[in-house]
Amino acid sequence: MTYTARNIRVAALQQAFIQDKTTTLNKTAQLVRQAADQGAELICLQELHAGPYFCQHQAADLFDLAETLDGKTAQLLGKLAAELNIVIVGSIFERRGKGVYHNTAIVFDRSTELAGFYRKMHIPDDPGFYEKYYFIPGDAEEPGFQPIETSIGKLGVLVCWDQWYPEAARLMALADADILIYPTAIGWEPEEEAAENERQKEAWITVQRGHAVANNLPVVAINRIGYEADPSQVTAGIDFWGSSFICGGQGEFLAHANHQQEAVLVADVDLNRSEQLRRIWPYFRDRRIDAYADLLKRYR
């Protein structure tokens, strides 16, 4: 088979929360336009990009921040996708029904119509990240670990805590995803020692590059920046470490932001390269699916 590259230009937008939802979304729209001006066809935004990371404490009135799949954020992203002729991956705090809320990635494909969505499957619950209070895990079958089909390829969209699980990446790859995308909100505890903070950040980068290598797929990891205080004052808040990146199917960096500055990362990604890599590194051929039953157990 003659190899033909299938290059797309991908952008990852790294930004901070600014004052309020309207101001932040206006800034997001500005960055989307900058990326589109640079030729980006696929533009990826960070987790819960329209507002603050509100999960640092538990408060019932914060459920008022949630919106539907066709709410304000979705309407803005759909208009941008149609106007700029782009595919855009956004993120919302979704109100699915009375008392049912999700952390949901939404995708628009050159249209105001929703192309697909993914509801975060792994939900953390730790000091400063009380997400189980707010979010119900996504359903295993609707849509579950299923890539979203778009005009540029099949997007394996996962969200933040999902990025630590090789099973999630592998299931997206087995469902024929062309690329893995991880909208994220993760950062340091300001009072932690610098060496430990650096280890945590490098672990976050390394595990996602590992998913790229293990599945022969490009990865886009998008994280927010800036310090956000804990309104309850129980913790010292979170200093989001940015460091968004785009890497190829062997984990090689194609674009990489620093930990504190707003960034429009742009890189060209060859979506056909996975086929070539899997011929050289045939992990999928050699998988021992007959011996993996224990993966379905909580602990062996």
The succession of helices and strands, N to C, reads EHEHEEEEEEEHEEHEEEEEEH
Shape: globular
Biggest β-sheet description = 6 strands, mixed
Please state how the strands of the largest beta sheet are arranged side by side: 5-4-3-2-1-17
Number of domains: 1
Rg on CA atoms, Å: 18 Å
Q: Roughly how much helix do the residues carry, as a percent range?
A: 10-25%
CATH topology: Nitrilase/N-carbamoyl-D-aminoacid amidohydrolase
- What's the CATH H-level homologous superfamily? Carbon-nitrogen hydrolase
Task: Supply the number of helical segments.
Answer: 5
Overall mean pLDDT score? 96
Strand tally is 17
Low-confidence stretches: none
User: What's the CATH class, please?
Assistant: Alpha Beta
Notes on the protein architecture:
This protein is of the alpha+beta class and 300 residues long. It has a single domain (7-296), classed as Nitrilase/N-carbamoyl-D-aminoacid amidohydrolase, CATH 3.60.110.10. It has helices at 21-37, 72-84, 166-174, 194-215, 273-280; strands at 7-14, 42-45, 87-97, 100-109, 114-119, 125-126, 129-130, 148-150, 153-157, 179-184, 187-188, 219-223, 225-228, 238-241, 245-247, 253-256, 263-270. The strands form four sheets. It has a six-stranded mixed sheet. Strands 8-9-10-12-15-16 form a six-stranded mixed sheet, covered by helices on one side. Helix 1 runs parallel beside helix 2 (72-84).
